[in-house]
Amino acid sequence: EGIKGNAKLRLRECDVGAKFSQLPLRKASVLLPLLLRDGTLCLLLTVRSMQLRRSPGEVCFPGGKSEETDKDEIDTALREAKEEVGLPPEKMNHLVTPVVGFIEDTFQASPNPDEVSDVFVVPLEYFIKPLNYVALPYKNSSGYLSWMHCFTYDDHEHKKSFKIWGLTAHFAVFLAIVIFRTKPTFEVDYDLDNLLTSAEDNFMNLYASINERKKSSL
């Protein structure tokens, strides 16, 4: 319980709750499921089915758009996780809320083949000390050049390599920094001495740039 207990304490310190839920954006949530494997804190990830219209074959966390029956963001993330991998509950211009939860270390996924083609786990520390990492250049919504994390993870259990990038990689990196309080081996946009404040500032700057883009297209 020591590893989990320390992780939970650090997560609570960075829990913003519903602070940004009132922003006028469409809502979606993803679940970042943590578990212990051989004493190592790991993240469970999924691969989107090739049958899906949006982002087929990409690595992601269980999640999706909110529905009217969902009480809140946590409800959305848990419902989607149950639908996609059988985990029982005990993107642009979307406000995507990451919900972190611990799952049983013995959990065996039952992927819904219509939505998920693979389920695998990655040691959380890989997202601050990767063996295979590149930063991909891209233009953000304001037209400024920025960098996107891209990890390649060799999963020996499945004898496969998985590419983890985009918002999924962004959330995984931030989660690893929150829990390990360690500077990654690559550059990040956060002030590690004021992690939560700098993350909130980054988010609000992005939100402001999206609003400006909306106004200019009217």
Automatic annotation (TrEMBL):
Subcellular location: Peroxisome
Domain (Nudix hydrolase): residue spans on this chain: 25-168
Matching InterPro entries: CoAse, NUDIX_hydrolase-like_dom_sf, NUDIX_hydrolase_dom, NUDIX_hydrolase_NudL_CS
Catalytic activity as recorded in UniProt: dodecanoyl-CoA + H2O = S-dodecanoyl-4'-phosphopantetheine + adenosine 3',5'-bisphosphate + 2 H(+); octanoyl-CoA + H2O = S-octanoyl-4'-phosphopantetheine + adenosine 3',5'-bisphosphate + 2 H(+); succinyl-CoA + H2O = succinyl-4'-phosphopantetheine + adenosine 3',5'-bisphosphate + 2 H(+); choloyl-CoA + H2O = S-choloyl-4'-phosphopantetheine + adenosine 3',5'-bisphosphate + 2 H(+)
GO biological process: coenzyme A catabolic process; nucleoside diphosphate metabolic process
One function term, GO molecular function aspect: RNA binding
Keyword tags: Hydrolase, Magnesium, Manganese, Metal-binding, Peroxisome, RNA-binding
Matching Gene3D superfamilies: Nucleoside Triphosphate Pyrophosphohydrolase (3.90.79.10)
Its EC number(s): 3.6.1.77
PROSITE patterns, alphabetized: NUDIX, NUDIX_COA
Family: Belongs to the Nudix hydrolase family. PCD1 subfamily.
Record's subunit section: Monomer.
Function: Fatty acyl-coenzyme A (CoA) diphosphatase that hydrolyzes fatty acyl-CoA to yield acyl-4'-phosphopantetheine and adenosine 3',5'-bisphosphate. Cleaves CoA, CoA esters and oxidized CoA with similar efficiencies. Preferentially hydrolyzes medium-chain acyl-CoAs and bile acid-CoAs. Has no activity toward NDP-sugars, CDP-alcohols, (deoxy)nucleoside 5'-triphosphates, nucleoside 5'-di or monophosphates, diadenosine polyphosphates, NAD, NADH, NADP, NADPH or thymidine-5'-monophospho-p-nitrophenyl ester.
Protein name, UniProt field: Peroxisomal coenzyme A diphosphatase NUDT7
